[in-house]
């Protein structure tokens, strides 16, 4: 069955449509959705079946996935991260929400999620109302990954083209307008001082 194609506006996403998407996520759906950078591929991190499907869509084994979570705000982060230092907390506070992925030491909750020995987790709080609204109604973060490999030159930006490419692989494609084709800046906070691993969108404020 082809994926649903759902139009949402960033400034005021339709709550009824958001709740419908969240119901599907709770039942194991994998979705493609807009962020403040590129379009992302995501699922409910508490649904094991959905994580397996997300990995199948991405073409990787569940234990091999580089885990990033979309959180609504900083209060979610301590559920998945250990030893968050004061300098790291301040750095995140200055730059989030925004187009950044912070790599942090994972606590014992993270390996259980994908049944793999993961030492780190990426945290994203995008400056975009659609994913934030989804996470707010879902009540926990989304596991997120890019819909293409991280080393490719062009990320797809047109939601209709994305739908055509993925409509038989995922359950929902959200049309939030044209996306960007520059991914998030990745910052490794497992070392001090923090190190930028990938230059993407956004200027890090120190």
Main beta sheet: strand number and arrangement?
10 strands, mixed
Mean pLDDT: 92
First-residue to last-residue Cα separation: 47 Å
Globally, the shape reads globular
SSE layout and pairing:
Layout: E1 4-7, H1 15-26, E2 31-33, E3 40-44, H2 48-58, E4 68-70, H3 86-95, E5 100-105, H4 109-114, E6 120-124, H5 129-138, E7 142-146, H6 159-166, E8 172-175, E9 185-188, E10 195-198
Parallel strand pairs: 1-8, 2-8, 4-6, 5-9
Antiparallel strand pairs: 2-3, 3-7, 4-7, 5-6, 9-10
GO molecular function: double-stranded RNA binding
Domain YrdC-like: 15-202
Protein name: Threonylcarbamoyl-AMP synthase
Task: Describe this structure as you would to a colleague.
Residues 15-202 form the YrdC-like domain. GO terms for molecular function: double-stranded RNA binding. InterPro entries: DHBP_synth_RibB-like_a/b_dom (IPR017945), Sua5-like_dom (IPR006070), SUA5_domain (IPR052532). This is Threonylcarbamoyl-AMP synthase. This protein is α/β, with parallel strands linked by helices and 206 residues long. The chain has six helices and ten strands, in the order E-H-E-E-H-E-H-E-H-E-H-E-H-E-E-E. The chain has helices at residues 15-26, 48-58, 86-95, 109-114, 129-138, 159-166; strands spanning 4-7, 31-33, 40-44, 68-70, 100-105, 120-124, 142-146, 172-175, 185-188, 195-198. The protein has a ten-stranded mixed β-sheet, with helices on both faces. Strand 2 (31-33) and strand 3 form a beta hairpin. Helix 1 crosses helix 5 (129-138). It is globular. The mean pLDDT is 92.
